[in-house]
Automatic annotation (TrEMBL):
Pyruvate phosphate dikinase AMP/ATP-binding domain location: 27-387
Protein name listed in UniProt: PEP/pyruvate-binding domain-containing protein
InterPro entries: ATP_grasp_subdomain_1, PPDK_AMP/ATP-bd
Domain of life the protein comes from: Bacteria
Organism in which the protein naturally occurs: Dethiosulfovibrio marinus
One Pfam family linked to the record: PPDK_N
Amino acid sequence: MDHREAYRSYDPSPYYRERGWVIGGGSVGGKGKGLAFAHESLLEDGLGCEIRLPEITLAVGTHGFEEFERINGIFPLVDEIPYDELERKILDSPLPPSISRELDRVLDTLTGPLAVRSSSLLEDDIELSFAGKYATRFVANLGDRSSRLAELERAIKSVFASTYNPAAREYQRKHKIPLGQEKMAVLIQPLQGKRRGDLFYPEMAITAFSCVFRRPSPRIDKNDGVIRLCFGMGTHTVGRSFARTFYLTNPQLRPEGGNAEQIYLYAQKDFDYVDMDQGLFMTSSLIDGLSRIERYHKMAPAFVEWYDDGMLYWLHTDRSNLRMPMPCFSFTDLPRRCHGFFDRTKRMLAFFEGAMGFPVDVEAVYESDEDLLTLVQLRPLASYMEFGHVDIPDDVPEERVVLKGNRMVTNHVRKGIRRLVYVDPDLYGESGDFAEVARAVGVVNQELEGERYILVGPGRWGSTNPTLGVPVDYSEISNCGCMVEVGIPKRGMIPELSYGTHFFLDLDVDEVLYLPVIEGEHENLFSRGWFEGRPFEPGGHPAVRIYEGVFDVYLDGEDEIGVVFDMS
């Protein structure tokens, strides 16, 4: 049996049962499978002494989910009431006594902050990832026993409810998964990190991938892997926020080159943590938290720099001569100061890819003081198909070039697309009603069911921060065939040039092409004249337009060029 078949047939149940870690019985789901496989693989290899796993991972099995639905009459309501009402019903319903009794005993063992994660039957599958579709909840685990138990139970029910959220339902529908086939298990783990004063967080959180499907340069070897890293809780690495990307072919290389202004624009500037006084998940700006970071993190000079007037300065620079210094998490000196971390991560990715037989996707945290790398999640990297060599036509008149970009593209061609859906950057930025724009895009997406269209908009599609891009969720763009992110530097709207977020995993699984275009940059073209001079249909909001025609998309991943032509 080859490695792929070994992972497909791997049964994680004995791993959890032997340790007494299953609550409620049934399957522990895809995420639970990945962790058990990682642990047992590491036990057989010397790499196990270099990588730590959570001390305990409890699983509320799928039988618990099914029992919860049965005793509370949940499933018949799924298509009868809106999701917000369904979610309230689930949160207000009691867990089965068999689960509550076990959770009460769990609190004797797990006394610090907790991560409560989804682990459905189909999640982290070889063909489908469901990345980011279901909930993860952080539990401070503070107060008296009754309060702690109530908080934990609510987190579990919140994960149960996410089985039916609109993004998950749309993903299931698009991939022809019948309603009711998906079942939810829940993992309960000690939250990885440290308490620093009244805050709890890991120093650094990473997502890492053993293959690189989108490269900023042909010099990057696709098989060397890539890391997406942030300071604090890992929400920045999996969402569409700013985080640092390291390509393991050469961790010193960055897509922005040595341009200090670009480095600052793309740098993380806030971080997430659990407030242990209030028991809340919160965000702090770096400038507000800098004195604390300097106090608790000896490695701070390796990852924090000052930006001022087009220059970057080391953290301990005398700032009296700087005009308006602003700090950012640049991670500039991290490859030199933590060289072993990058080497170990590269070995870890290669090891797990060999053990699983597939490219892999991992989440982990790192504490530099102890040089401690802790694995949080392992799963197969969602399948991706890439064309062979692509030749972009050189005989198409210049006026037919609608969009052109020169980075982060793969080899692909998609021709004869009939519609282009466009969010006007100026109208979007001035309107302020960002959510209404996103909902209007969602309506257009629904109307174009069964049709692959081109989606063009400013900044980052799916950003949780609407000033960075249109805050759509997966269900509102699920039918698009090519996504274009237009960077408008003067508005601070910058595309996400790094591979690795949940959003990008969706693109890969659903074969959605991706093209970033930066207005004003060399070899980039955003033809405002075409968009202003071409007739269009309104899209339900003044900022949303629908253009009809015949559009061809060519992406040349070798020379890093992507073009959208109007062939009408």
